Fold:
Amino acid sequence: MALKDQYKIIEFKDLGDERGNLVVIEGEGMDIPFDIKRVFYIYGSDSEVIRGQHANRETEFLLVNVSGSSKVKVDNGEETEIISLDKPRMGLYLSSMLWKDMYDFSEDSVLLVLASRHYDGNEYIRNYDEYLEIIKK
Ligand code: TYD
Structure:
């Protein structure tokens, strides 16, 4: 599958008014394609740190830098793309079986992650050579 069909940048509506901004993300095909089972967020990562460096057999994700900025490199074994996350209204949808790196975190970066599955360490592929073998099967 072409990499461009494995991720999607989504611009969420801002329901804000004179009191401030309000962004809503509803699951199950409303704003994002999946039912949200898990939420986590990453902050306090140094600008030198590279996180992720894994693929997930099952889980789909939606990433939003609700504060600050970071970069995400996606890789399907054949193509790579770098996406800059720097707006609280901008979401990055990632399908399963994509290799991903998150890096270049700003000091104020809070990276919110919505996931389609509960955590299961067994569905993580953390070795890049193994990832390549699996997707080339
Ligand atoms: P890790 O997958 O290395 O984080 P990242 O994708 O940001 O690089 O996760 C760090 C630790 O936290 C690891 O021991 C697994 C654990 N963890 C959970 O228990 N539940 C979760 O939902 C996540 C994302 C991680």
Residues 3-15+22-135 form a domain with the Jelly Rolls fold (CATH 2.60.120.10). The chain has one domain: 3-15+22-135. The pocket of thymidine-5'-diphosphate is lined by residues 38, 40, 42, 51-52, 119 (CB under 6 Å). The two ends are 13 Å apart (CA to CA).
